[in-house]
Design a protein that fits this description.
- By secondary structure, the chain is an alpha+beta fold.
- The chain folds into 2 domains: 1-38, no CATH class; 47-346, Jelly Rolls (Sandwich).
- It is 18% helix and 30% strand.
- The chain has helices at residues 11-21, 32-35, 51-64, 67-70, 167-172, 194-199, 222-233, 333-339, and strands at residues 47-49, 74-76, 93-99, 104-110, 114-120, 125-128, 131-134, 140-143, 149-152, 159-165, 178-180, 219-220, 244-247, 262-268, 277-279, 283-289, 292-296, 299-303, 308-311, 317-321, 325-331, 344-346.
- It has a 6-stranded antiparallel beta sheet. A 6-stranded antiparallel beta sheet has the order 2-3-10-5-8-12. The chain has a 5-stranded antiparallel beta sheet with strand order 7-6-9-4-11.
- It is globular, with a radius of gyration of 22 Å.
- It starts with 10 loop residues before the first helix and ends with a strand.
- The structure holds 2,5-dihydroxybenzoic acid.
Length: 349
């Protein structure tokens, strides 16, 4: 017997299994090699969603249902290996949300954490815990667990962003709670920009005490993150597997910005080809700038600005940038690291 093989069955054994099965018993040796595997075995497959296609279908959805009636007008990006499970990876959900001019997506809250990554439009807003933030292309916005949030669009253009949520994690733990606020918009109690000033200027209020696990900053503006990458790239210190890759942090503790979802932003200079890399956190990438090609588990995906693609756990990935490119990405790395599961490997033999 080993972890990779099952014992050969005999008629006596099979009769025994049938007898105990009726009372909800299963012999471990018949399933061990399926449940404790030498390497991750995932139904998650690599896939790319083209933004142009998604956008057309989102706008079509915009003629079929309002944001208010839908509660959230979102097209879920479903992993082709896990259809009808509302997952982009085994542990994470992703969707594309459209808010049309004049619309509101009503205030609600849930145990699941959400991130937004803005892909089109300018000037729509999200309010979180009494503060409104105005969103621009590439902004990374957090809705912490159980925080009231509503979205609105006072601009004259459609607004589209990617949502990333830990819905499958909450489902796994059977820990989903949700409620509506009862009004479209929550009352505002803080000035726009207050959180970023208070927590996002390399200072913290002198008597700051954390409340909750998410970062107190809830909009990480793209302009700032992009400026940082621009300044750093002059140093020409490229990680062979990642180019120049940064993680969005919670300034209160230096950990990831969210308790369950790890967000990243990376720059690849023009013509850069990364060395193979794999890690146990299946990762969702958004091409924020540029164009290129990523090869995941031997499948190549050409991406353009705004396309979204997913790499499963423990599959080799390489990126090749055509021109200078920026990739936003998110995964469950923060959760895996806290629980002791996370592994990575660079450059296969
Ligand atoms: O904006 O609150 O894509 O509650 C899925 C569930 C977005 C949201 C989603 C949600 C939201």
């Amino acid at each position: 017997m080993s972890l990779t093989e099952k014992p050969i069955e005999t008629p006596e054994r099979l009769a025994f299994y049938r007898k105990i099965d009726k009372q909800a018993y299963t012999p471990l040796w018949t399933v061990l090699s399926d449940i404790i595997t030498p390497e991750p075995r995932s139904r998650c497959v690599p896939h790319l969603w083209q933004f142009a296609q998604a956008r057309a279908w989102l706008l079509e959805a915009g003629e079929l249902i309002t944001a208010k009636e839908a509660e959230r007008r979102v097209l879920i990006l479903e992993n082709p290996g896990m259809r009808s499970e509302s997952k982009i990876t085994t542990s994470l959900y992703a969707g594309l949300q459209l808010v049309l001019p004049g619309e509101v997506a009503p205030a609600h809250r849930h145990s699941q954490s959400a991130l937004r990554f803005v892909l089109e439009g300018s000037g729509a807003h999200t309010s979180v815990n009494g503060e409104r933030t105005v969103m621009e292309y590439g902004d990374f916005v957090i809705t912490p667990p159980w925080a009231w949030h509503d979205h609105g669009n006072d601009s004259d253009q459609p607004m589209i962003w990617m949502d990333g949520l830990d819905i499958p994690v909450a489902s796994f733990f059977d820990a989903s709670f949700a409620e509506g606020y009862g009004e479209d918009e929550q009352p505002l109690s803080r000035q726009t920009g207050d959180s970023l000033a208070r927590y996002g200027a390399n200072m913290l209020p002198i008597d700051y005490h954390r409340h909750g696990l998410a970062s107190p900053i809830f909009n990480y503006p793209y302009a700032r993150s992009r400026d940082a990458l621009e300044a750093m790239q002059r140093q020409q210190e490229w990680d062979p597997c990642h180019g120049l890759k940064m993680r969005y942090v919670n300034p209160a503790d230096g950990g990831f910005a969210m308790p369950t979802i790890a967000p990243f932003l990376q720059l690849l200079p023009a013509g850069f080809k990364t060395e193979p890399y794999r890690s146990t956190d299946a990762t969702v990438f958004v091409a924020t700038e540029g164009s290129g090609r990523s090869t995941i588990d031997g499948h190549s995906f050409d991406w353009d600005k705004r396309d979204i693609f997913v790499a499963p756990s423990w599959k080799w990935i390489t990126h090749e940038s055509e021109n200078e490119s920026v990739l936003f990405s998110f995964s469950d790395r923060v959760a895996q690291q806290k629980l002791g599961f996370w592994r990575e490997q660079r450059g296969h033999a």
